[in-house]
Amino acid sequence: MRPLGIIAGRIRQLTRVIAACLSLGSPTTLTVAASAVTVTKSFHKVDSTSGSGSTTNLTTINGGEQGNILVLMAANDAKTISLRDNTANLRLAGNCNLDSIVDTITLMFDGAVWVELCRSNN
Q1: Per-residue pLDDT tens for 70-114?
Q2: How far apart are CA 33 and CA 65, in angstroms?
Q3: Dihedral angle, C-alpha 59, 45, 20, 108, nearest 10 °
Q4: How many CB atoms lie within 10 A of CB 60?
Q5: Could you give the C-alpha distances from 115 to 22, 42, 56, 69, 118, in angstroms and in order?
Q6: 20 conformational bin, left if phi > 0, alpha if psi -120 to 50, beta if neither
Q7: Per the CB 3.0–4.6 Å rule, which of 24, 75, 96, 106 could disulfide with 45?
Q8: With contact defined as beta carbons under 8 Å apart, do 54 and 80 qualify?
């Protein structure tokens, strides 16, 4: 039987490892071009070159490896990024509009398509 202090130490180590694995870090902003973006990390804000009040369709997410988790967030309250379900490599629970800087969608890459895990419309 191990002393309680050793077990508590192992639990603290495991907690630090889990927290490090779940941290997405600071987002970078991707600009949708030709209805696509290329991801380089697990957390990005998305924007468009269109003016205020506009909607830009996002149908393709390039990059990623099988098993990657991706969180996308709107970069601008005045623009809407509309992720389009069942187009190119997006498989969502219906179209998803990111039109507030606190709207998010979380996806997982299965090696061929990005599959929606959840979304938050704030």
Answers
A1: 999 999 999 999 999 999 999 999 999 999 999 999 999 999 999
A2: 21
A3: -10
A4: 17
A5: 19, 14, 20, 10, 9
A6: alpha
A7: 75
A8: yes
